[in-house]
Every structure is written in structure tokens, then in C-alpha cells.
Amino acid sequence: MRKLFRKLRKPFEYVLNNMRFKYKFFVLYFLCVITPLVLTDSIIVKAVFDQERASLEYDMEYVARMYENYLENMINTDITLADTVNGNKKINNLAEKQFKNGYEYYSEYFDLITDSFLETASGLNRNSIVVYADNDTIIDSEFLKDLSKEYTTKWYTDFIDSKRKDYFAAYYDDTNAKNMITARKIYYIKRLENHPSETAKIVVIGHDASDLQKDFDALHASYPVYVTMNDYVLYASHNHALINTKDVHIGPKQSITKTIDITGNELNIIVVNEKPLISRVIKKNTGILFLLLFITIIIPPIVLKTIEHTIVKRISKLESAFGNENTNTFTAIKDIEGSDEIAFLMRKYNKMVEITNELITTVYKDKIKEQETDIARQKAELLALQSQINPHFMFNALESIRMHSLLKGETETATMVDKLAVMERQNVEWGKDYVSVKTEIESIEAYLALQSYRFGDRLSFDIDVEKECESYLVPKLTIVTFVENACVHGIESKASQGWIFVRVYKGKDELVIEVEDTGEGMSEEKVKEMLDDINNVTIDVIKEKKHVGMLNACLRLKMLTDNAVKFDIESEQGVGLSVIIRIPFNKLKKSLGELN
């Protein structure tokens, strides 16, 4: 027996041996104190919840029965009234009679109203009682109307399609839709067959939703109540705006539904509890729940904290002193208390910290020197890239002036030189490698203006920059490099008119720069090859290539953004080419004062 106990105990000992000391106390307290308390409290809380749920369901059932009794009484009264009309010989004879003129009709009609119950019955919470007869000699009046005029109405076609002798339905009167509630009609329709004849007769007993709503509101339901028919809202106690809508979405809320089957249609009474059951339980049982909370949650942490303060706290202090893998230095422990094994371990740790920090300081100094060397190398490479751009743009600008002078003389030279001066000003000030998007766009406008002299009507351009993007800094003469590429490789090789579009706008988390031309475009293979060159560009690659303008700009953008910039090229041969540059905002600055 003892051997069996040791075998069973061994896995638990293994787990405990690999568990932190403070968690061992927690496990002990959790298993021996908290778990029994939680189980006991759960049973009590469940009993309280079950009681409250039963009470809530009873209250909701009571509310549903109130509405159910009202509706059943209304419907039964309608049925009784329709049966009375069906059995009334005078009403049926009047509906069937063929009248010679209006005088004869009105004479007999008013005699009928005087002797019959129609006028009295229509006031008993009934908005209308109308007998419809298929008799064109009838003149439409309050209680008797020609049925042929209703053949196309929805209530009549639905009644005919139902193939029933009686029918209950609700409709929205679009002809009087100023007030959504008063335009809502509820009808009980019955075919009159007690006095067989060739004349088709039906009685329609109608209700306005406004009267029904007043009666329902007078019930003062303590829960939201919805009355629906065929998923169509007839009444909403807490939100009248839902009337004349479909599909009441109750969601996960608790609800009770009563269904009344009326002449083939279902009338649903939905009572909803919008307040969570837990809030009801807390409100009614605050004292009990507070006591359980105090015993289960307040007391155990206090006891556990006391134990931790004596033993576990010092172990945690030692653990936090070591830090984590992201910590560059170790911190010595201050105010070591006691003379036991834990205190001895803390003192040994402090000695180790002193030695380790000295080693880290030495390593850091070497690392800083290495970083400074790498930064100097990158700056040298950047200056080398910058020096390649100067003659490149000067040549193209001067070439435009030369060709214009040859073709048109010297009359517009001054204007061209002014545009060239704008570019030259940016080109020679290499003390500032970064310029605002606004300044870069000024260079682009000057460049395109010069190219317009060269290409004439063959070149048109449009520049669209969001105001918020103008203050962001980019490497000098980068965007204009892509514009120049669009001119030389897009517009120059096309005999017809071409456009260049430059757009700068804010994306979701990035600055987006687009340079588009309507030139000859590129094949899919060349686009893929160009993207591969851009994504893999280095200083060594630029040194080996002859035409490096765009690669130069791409490399400088990569240096600015720590390779976070993204390039994309969209092209179709014979249509044009678009270069899209995306730079994350967290890699950009907005003023020259922020640059080191």
C-alpha cells in the first residue's frame, strides 16, 4: 500500500519541483480553501439565480397573458359581429338589391342604418364596419360599398388567395402615410353566405393601430412587448418607431412568446427582458452576494499576501532583479533582509551583478564604435549617390533649353532659365538631403514646365497633392526622378499626346506617391524585372549599371525608411505605366528641425 502511494505521489512531486515557490503556496491555498468555498458559493448562487429566473418568467408570462386576453377578446368580438352581419337579412337584401337611382339607394340605406346595429357597433372600439357587395348600383357610403372597386387592393387579393371564408390581416395604408401609426390598419374579413345569392358579399371590420396602441399602452407593461403578425410589427410598447417594420430582432435577450392562431395567420405576443438576469439578482440579493464576495474573494487574497510577504516576496524580488531577455543590465538588490538561504543567494547575486555589468559596459563600448563606423559608411554612400544625380538633371534641363532655342529662337529663353533656376537651387544645396514634399513638388513643376517647351502639345501634366502631405520630408530629387523617367521613357517614345499625373495623398497608415504616364507602357516581364531590381538595389548594383537614376532614388528612399518603403508598378503596353510608392508614416518626419 505504501509503495502504491509513492508511485501515485511521484508525478505530483515532479510537478511541484518544477513550480515556483510562490505558486506552491497558491496551489495549497487554492485546493484547500478557495475551491471548497467556490463550490459552496456556486450552489448558493445557482439556487438564487434559478429562483429569480422562475420569478422573471412568471412576471413575463403574466404580461403576455394580459395582451393575449385583450387580443382574443377583440378577435372574438369581431367574429361575433361578423356573424351578426352575416345573419342580418336587411343588410344582405340591401347589398343584393339592384337600385334604379341614387335617391332610391340612399332612402333604403338610411332606413337600414336607423334600424340596424351598424352605427352603434362601429363605435365599440371598432373604427369601421363595411359590407362590400359586388353590386355596381351601390353608391359608396360609410357602411356599404361596391366590391368591384376593391378587386386590385392587397387586402382583397390576399383574402381571395387564402381561399378561406374568413381572414385576419394587417396592412399599411400607403395612401395616407403621413402618420405611420394611423395609416396602419388591422382587418377581420368574412364572406357573407347566410343568404345565398349570385351577389358576392363580404364584411370587413377594421381597426386603426393608433386605437390598438392606446389600449395596449394603458396596460402599462413592465417589460418591452411586441405584437407581430407574419414577422410584421403591429405594436411595440417601448419603441413605436418599430411599427410598420419587419423582423423583430430579439437577440440573446430572454423572451416569452405567445402565439394566437387566427384564421390561418399567427399573431405573436413577444415579451422581452432587456435587463440581464444578473442585474436583477444583484439588486434583490445584494446582502447575500456581498457576504459571499467578502468570504470568497476578499479574505483569501489577504491571507495569501501575508504568506507571500514572509517568504515569497523575497524570491520575487530576486526574480525581478534578473529582469528578462530584453534587459541590457542587471540591477543589484537593495535592503536584503534576513540571514537564511534566500538572503545568502541575494548577496551572491549582487556580487555577480557587479562583475557582469563591467563586462557589459566593455562590450557596449565596442558595439557603439562599430555602429559609428557603419553610420559613417552609409553617409559616404549617400553622398556618392547624391553626386550622381547633379549632372544627370542638369543635362536634361540644358538639353530642353537647347532644343527650344533651335526650334523657336530666343524669345522664351528667360522663362525657361527661370524654371531651370528652381531646379538648380534644389540641385546644388546638398547640405540638406531631405526636403518637404511641397519643395519637391516645386521642382517637379519646374521640370515639367521645361519639358513642356520641349514636347509642346505632346505633353500635358496634372499634379495633385493633399495639403496634409506637403510637410512630410523625403530625400531630395527622388520624386522628380520618377517624373523624369516617365517623360524620357514614356512620353518621348510616343508620337501622340501624352499625360503625366503626380499624386501624393495619405493612405491608412502611409504616405502614398503615384507617378503615372500614358506612354507606351511595359510588358509584364519587364515590370517584373524592374521590381526585382528595385527590391534588390544596393550600392554595388548601382556602380555596375549605366542608367541608375530611378534605382538611385529607390535606394535613398530605402535608406530613409530602414527598408520599410514599398514599391509597386502597374503597366499595360500601349496604355501607360504607373509607379506607386508607399512609405509608413512612422518612418517619416514633418520638419527640418527634427533631423539630426
Walkthrough of the structure:
This protein has helices spanning 2-17, 21-87, 89-96, 102-115, 118-122, 154-162, 209-217, 277-284, 286-322, 341-408, 413-428, 437-455, 479-491, 524-535, 539-544, 549-561, and strands at 128-133, 144-146, 166-172, 184-191, 201-208, 225-229, 232-236, 254-262, 265-273, 434-436, 459-465, 473-475, 498-506, 510-517, 566-572, 576-584. The protein has a 5-stranded mixed sheet, with helices on both faces. A 5-stranded mixed sheet has the order 11-13-14-16-15. The chain folds into 2 domains: 10-322, no CATH class; 371-594, 2-Layer Sandwich (Heat Shock Protein 90). 54% of the residues lie in helices and 18% in strands.
